[in-house]
Amino acid sequence: xxxxxxxxxxxxxxxxxxxxxxxxxxxxxxxxxxxxxxxxxxxxxxxxxxxxxxxxxxxxxxxxxxxxxxxxxxxxxxxxxxxxxxxxxxxxxxxxxxxxxxxxxxxxxxxxxxxxxxxxxxxxxxxxxxxxxxxxxxxxxxxxxxxxxxxxxxxxxxxxxxxxxxxxxxxxxxxxxxxxxxxxxxxxxxxxxxxxxxxxxxxxxxxxxxxxxxxxxxxxxxxxxxxxxxxxxxxxxxxxxxxxxxxxxxxxxxxxxxxxxxxxxxxxxxxxxxxxxxxxxxxxxxxxxxxxxxxxxxxxxxxxxxxxxxxxxxxxxx
Length: 318
Known about the structure:
- By secondary structure, the protein is of the alpha+beta class.
- 36% of the residues lie in helices and 23% in strands.
- Helix 1 packs across helix 4.
- The N and C termini lie far apart (47 Å).
């Protein structure tokens, strides 16, 4: 299924959800408790739409994840397509699952909901087409989460909540599976939370996080070739007789990621392959591996800002 077909499928299953979500957005900070601007709508809203006010079965929880992801994505329908060289370099960039996640950077997602194309990636043993991403504010406990909804090649949807805050990817996966185990136990279901399973999930999450972090980094290269100069962003509400409302985007919008950097990487590779170093005593020109680097800026005595930067492969020795 395409992302649009997925949206149509969940819309057909819950046709009144979008108008319900509109009302909840209008009641934000009034009849309903407030939530951060980086979250379109807490998943409690999707739970209410799916359950109809009753306790949802564990099968219905999959629809909660899908409905919440589609709700955030349908407003802009951004599909992010990476230049092949940049994509390969990003997924190969070392990211230690045991090191802390720079959570403060993830709040800078360009849109409320996004779909990333992920050719060749897998979640444990399942090949992926892509994944939807959005940020969640848990209305029950105030927890912040990065939510991944994996679009599997076998048409399954797999939800992966990564709990933000202090700690590493592996620790976030551990917290997620412990929460899943608690919920499953309440429903009489056994969940696999073994260290081996959690480690495999953390390893699978690392390249996905690398792709996501690039979009949140200091200067991501994102462009729409059909509309030069445009940038992704949250949609602006439109004024209607019923007040300000957000509307579904008319069509899919493809954002190309890293086109210029990809071109430079290809040129650098051509240099390293064609360079004649027979007369040189120094090492042959080569590509230095891409890496992430965090930088703090601002006065030591005042508020400081954290920037996460991705340094692409660099040609060395020319």
